[in-house]
Amino acid sequence: MEDKKKILGQIISAVEIEALMREGKNEEAHSNLSNLLKKEPKNSYAWYLLGNLYSRQQLYREALEAYNNAKLLEPDGPAAAAVDWVVEQMSASGGL
After folding, report:
1. Burial 7-36 (b: 16+ CB within 10 A, else e)
2. Average pLDDT of each block of 10 consecutive residues along the chain (96 residues)?
3. Which CATH number fits domain 2-92: 3.30.750.24, 1.25.40.10, 1.10.10.10, 3.40.50.10310?
4. The whole model's pTM is what?
5. Cys staple from 71: which of 5, 50, 79, 93, with CB 3.0 to 4.6 Å?
6. CA angle, 71 as apex, 36 and 11 as ends, to 5°?
7. What pLDDT, on a 0 to 100 scale, did the predictor assign at position 90?
8. What is the Cα 19 distance to its own chain's centre?
9. Judging by beta carbons within 10 Å of its beta carbon (0-12, 13-18, 19+), is residue 74 exposed, middle or buried?
């Protein structure tokens, strides 16, 4: 039962953070993600969301680090494709 509550809490947190990002409330989303990752450093989806947030702000080095953290935790997760995309963006902008 505790595991179900924890998973439900993670889903609710992720949905709330995604809503903040859609609304352009980047500072609040970043704060919530930071707090979530302090409590759950092995939450691959939170790392993925952090990468998305950084990507939207064109902070590609930070995005790459966040996506790599997510990819280490969940190699077949959505961060795998996101890493490739960020590398392309960095190459195109001369950041690599």
Report:
1. eeebeebbeebeebbeeeeeeebbebbeeb
2. 67 85 94 93 95 94 96 94 89 76
3. 1.25.40.10
4. 0.85
5. 79
6. 35
7. 87
8. 13
9. middle
